[in-house]
Amino acid sequence: VAQVSPPAAGERHAGTEGGPIRRNPAGNVARPMVQRLPEPQDVAQCLEVGLFDTPPFYSNSTNSFRNTVEGYSDPTGKYDPAIRSLHNLAHLFLNGTGGQTHLSPNDPIFVLLHTFTDAVFDEWLRRYNADVTTFPLENAPIGHNRQYNMVPFWPPVTNIEMFVTAPDNLGYTYEVQWPSRNLSITEIVTIAVVATLLLVAVIFAAASCLIRARSNMDEANQPLLTDQYQHYDEDYEKMQNPNQSMV
Predict the structure, then answer these.
(1) Looking at the domain that runs over 32-162, which CATH code has it been given?
(2) Which residues belong to any copy of the Tyrosinase copper-binding domain (predicted)?
(3) How far apart are CA 158 and CA 172, in angstroms?
(4) Domain extents in the chain
(5) Which of 132, 113, 23 minimizes the C-alpha distance to 70?
(6) pLDDT tens digits, residue range 47-104?
(7) Residues 137-156 pLDDT 10s
(8) What SS3 class is residue 29?
């Protein structure tokens, strides 16, 4: 278990109600699922979820990017109550101050984690060019509808005002090299079949061109006189009276 050293006299620190910041990464043996950090492939799959949110607009929504990046669904967007991924998984992996909702902001890792989560959201907005209609207008939990104000910002800022990319709204960009998604077995098989068909088509076209070229070459090399005319010519020379017709 790691913990931040107590501060010297007069220094301030981000302590918790139970003492200094605590971390025990992957130490929750009772929940093997949270003994790892999210992987790049998880982020790639999350960015494939095309809908921002789906009813009931809560932690049990499925095929919802909002719920997926938050970590209540698996990285592909499928809701599973036993799954914790991405943002939530990173918190739970810390297994200490950072894993407790009301205390996690005290751990400096909180800033890094949420900055990256914001970057994922910004990339999603950029890829899908999402408009305001994808943000729930009503029936979302309190504070999460389109026109609700974001707490605790002042002056008030609505959710929809922040539903734009960072360069357009905040004046900066995120420098992230986003991972590519691994191909599924179906996609691999499809690509292999298409590649095979293209290869067969190329071979067939090349063979056809070669056969046609050889045929044209053979025609060009044909003698002006055939064997039949050559035979007539030899018989003509043997005749005693060349003026006599051979027909």
Answers:
(1) 1.10.1280.10
(2) 107-118
(3) 20
(4) 32-162, 183-213
(5) 113
(6) 999 999 999 999 999 999 999 999 999 999 999 999 999 999 999 999 999 999 889 9
(7) 999 999 999 999 998 888 99
(8) coil
